[in-house]
Amino acid sequence: GESVGLHLPTLSVQEGDNSIINCAYSNSASDYFIWYKQESGKGPQFIIDIRSNMDKRQGQRVTVLLNKTVKHLSLQIAATQPGDSAVYFCAEILGGGADGLTFGKGTHLIIQP
Amino acid sequence: KAGVTQTPRYLIKTRGQQVTLSCSPISGHRSVSWYQQTPGQGLQFLFEYFSETQRNKGNFPGRFSGRQFSNSRSEMNVSTLELGDSALYLCASSETFNYGYTFGSGTRLTVV
Question: What kind and span of H or E run contains B22?
Answer without folding.
Answer: strand B19-24
